[in-house]
Amino acid sequence: MRRLLTGNAAAAWGARLARADYVPAFPITPQTEIIELLAQWFGAGEMRGRLVMLESEHSMVTAAAAAAATGVRVFTATSSQGLLYAMEMLYTVTGWRVPFVLVNVSRGLASPITLESDHNDVLAARDSGFLQMHCATCQEIVDSVLLAYRLAEEPAVRLPAIVNLDGFHLSFTREPVELPPAEAAAEFLPPFEARGIGFRASRPSSQAVAVLGGSPYSYFRYETHLAAQHALEVYDGVAAEFAQRFGRRHDAVECYRSDDAEIVFFMIGAFATKAMDAVDRLRDAGVRAGLVRPRLLRPYPVAALRRALAGRRAVAVIDQNLSVGKGGVLHGELASALYGQAEAPLLASYVGGLGGRDIAPEEFFQIARELGEAIAARQAPPPRLLYTAGELRQMRNLQAIAAAERSVPGVAA
Amino acid sequence: MYRIRLHGRGGQGIKTGGRILGSAFFGAGFDAQDAPVYGAERRGAPMFATVRASRAPIRERGLMARPDLVVLADETLLQVPAANVLFGVGAATVLLIHGTGEAADWRVRLGFDGKVVVLPVTAGTAERAGSGIAGARCAGAAARLVGGIAREQLGAALTEELGPLGPAVLASNLEQALAAFDAVAPHAGVVRESAPASARDFAAPDWIDLPLDPARIAAPDIHAAATSVEARTGLWRTLRPEIDYAHCNRCTWVCSTLCPDSAIRVRPDRSPEIDLQHCKGCMICVSVCPPHAIHSIPERVAQEREPAGAAP
Questions:
Q1: CATH number for the A2-246 domain, one of 3.40.50.970, 3.90.76.10, 2.10.260.10, 3.40.640.10?
Q2: Per-residue pLDDT at A148
Q3: What is the pLDDT of residues B11-55, one digit of tens each?
Q4: Quick one: which H or E segment has residue A376?
Q5: Which part of chain A is CATH 3.40.50.970?
Q6: What is the spatial distance between Cα B94 and Cα B192, in angstroms, rounded to a whole number?
Q7: pLDDT at B167 over 90
């Protein structure tokens, strides 16, 4: 039965259907609703296990991994500054090689401080060793939590996983969700078989020891990399099984009307559904447009992306993030995947949706128009921030109020 | 697709109103999407919720630039520019005002080309301004204006959303929502679904290249002192605290220190004075006053008693 759920509720349902044993928690907008729901369910006995409020996200992630090291199933969630506060432990615990799932509700990073979504928070964790799945709908959130546990707990992977959803545009947005029945979810995701994982105070052992000299360090870190890459193959199998059981495909790379597309939008997250709408409108207008969206960002599905984009003529990478001094992160990643490929498309870089700024239908249409011009000119346009003259006028008004311009002689507001 | 935006203040039940409307659409067989939008501030602060409904899957999300129906739960929000109530409205937009006055007067006052429907504020809702009932009333009226939602489906949606809060809350909201549903019957189905944006014929966005500004300008700083005084948070108030000085025993440190917004000053004679420009109407002072010398009155009533132009 379909029901209306927010993205946060969908994430909490994912943890519930996964039968998480332990949830270390710390509140932060726009994530808090997840742990509130879980606390309610634990309190009412609808979930068995324990939810514990820690004193910070740093401790929360430490507790999550420490509990995972004892062989129980662990769920936790945070957002934005919270993920950054935990950053030291994100890198540390991937070296512990224990599986758990962390839901991150994306929110732009300070400064200036904001509440609304962009992806710089989760991309700051890009190189940590966490696997990363990116959702575009509330349905995908509950499904992805289950998929993430299967992936993370696979003995040949054994890495923690982040399931990412956008603040506001998913976290607080209700849309129809089909919840997997509890029994079917339990068949897809059986109880966690810890195998060798079982740290006990009564059975002393040393985990994550110190190494000196680069050689052992290289070995351990690269093994993590190999495990993450192996997760690609595992993911295909797990997603196929999920599709067979539940009738919903969540491939590592989603391709929407891109098979015969000339121009392609390339993006992750909730705004990708707006791109799908734009694709339909462009098709109505006779433009062969499509969308390619990596669900899995770590491991990076290079082969699937090359297949999806071979023969396309131009791709607009729309980055809802900004690597300061470089540009859009996804643009650089895709360029590295496509460099030197025969039939590789032109790549254009757009940065949009920072701090939750909308991307209007007309902006997608205009991007498509620019790609058409790029194909004719055989040259990609320069990188662009989606930002209008009207927005700058408003910004100048705010600066006048803030008296910023008065401190710099010769600069008009 | 139907695109509906409900504007109100934190505490008026607008988030819930959006959910009631979303559930009513969903129960009537539509795909529905509802989402509240608010910042860090709470009770009394301007906020809004969006509701989308369609027979096809909904992929649009976030900002609603072209609403088919705008619902205004609290007409005083029109004084607050930041609330941006009329953002994106056009001649095809229906404006539902939960307030006072005549539709024709509102069209003139607002310079609004579309249709206006006034849902009169009842004595009960006026007295309980901020009690949360406005959201249910607005959802009930909006359901009727849209059409395609039966009275029973509206009732079922209310039961789903408010049932967990207990029978008393549900009953009062049901009564108000159904009354509002009935009250706007002459305008049933007046809201029309707008067409999607066309990729064939569209206005290109006026993108610009941002200039490199000096860091002094480009840093998010405010170059002045005490600027929060300029934010008239008194405009958020739906209830006003009123001090009965005859019973105030001058233990002013209690109310003045517990006011979370430092909006209670201590006069030289040790009596308290409420800063109505900044009091948000949280009513903490009412609940902590030892001799019960502070009580609350609806802001609307308080303003009506004041001479014109005296309101903060």
A1: 3.40.50.970
A2: 98
A3: 889 999 999 999 999 999 999 999 999 876 777 889 999 999 999
A4: helix A361-377
A5: 2-246
A6: 9
A7: yes
pLDDT tens-digit profile of B235-248?
Answer: 888 889 999 999 99
Q: Is residue B102 situated within a structural domain?
A: yes
Residue that terminates a domain, selected from B187, B218, B250 = B187
Pick the CATH number of A253-391 from 2.70.150.10, 3.10.310.40, 3.40.50.920, 3.40.50.720: 3.40.50.920
Which residues of chain A does B212 touch, with a Cβ-Cβ cutoff of 8 Å? none
**What CATH number does residue B300 fall under?**
3.30.70.20
pLDDT for the residue numbered B229: 86
User: ipTM, 2 decimals?
Assistant: 0.94
Q: What is the pLDDT of residue A413?
A: 42
pLDDT confidence of residue B81: 85
Averaged pLDDT score across all residues of chain A: 96
B228 assigned to some structural domain:
no
Determine the residue among A365, A367, A386, A406 to mutate to test chain B binding: the one whose Cβ has the most chain B Cβ atoms within 10 Å.
A365
Q: Does B34 touch chain A (CB under 8 A)?
A: yes
Among candidates A169, A387, A407 on the partner chain, residue whose Cβ is nearest the Cβ of B62: A169
Which of B34, B200, B210 has the CB atom closest to A174's CB atom? Answer: B34
> Which one, of B177, B170, B189, B171, lies nearest residue B140 by Cα?
B177
pLDDT band at A214 (very low <50, low <70, confident <90, very high): very high
Q: What is the DSSP string of chain B?
A: -EEEEEEEETTSSHHHHHHHHHHHHHHTT-EEEEEEE--S--TTSEEEEEEEEESS-----S--SS-SEEEES-GGGGG-GGG-TTTT--TT-EEEEEESS-HHHHHHHHT--SEEEEEEPPHHHHHTTTSSHHHHHHHHHHHHHH-S--HHHHHHHHHHHHGGG-HHHHHHHHHHHHHHHHHTGGGTT---PPPPPPSSS-PPP-B-PPP---HHHHS----SSSGGGGS-GGGG-SEEEEE-TTT--S-THHHHHH-TT--EEE-TTS-EEE-TTT-----HHHHH-TT--EEEEEHHHHHHHSPTT---
Of A96-110, A381-395, B33-47, B185-199, the range with the lowest mean pLDDT is B33-47
Q: Which residues on chain B are in Cβ contact (under 8 Å) with A287? A: 199
Residues A243, A248, A253: CA angle, nearest 5 degrees: 85
Question: Which tens digit of pLDDT belongs to each residue from A88-144?
Answer: 999 999 999 999 999 999 999 999 999 999 999 999 999 999 999 999 999 999 999
B186 touches chain A (CB under 8 A): no
Q: Between A174, A285, A392, which is nearest B198 by CB?
A: A285
| CA A356/CA A169 separation, integer angstroms | 8
- Asked if residue A128 has a cis previous peptide bond (ω within 30° of 0), the answer is no
Q: Between chain A and chain B, how many beta carbons pairs sit less than 8 Å apart?
A: 134
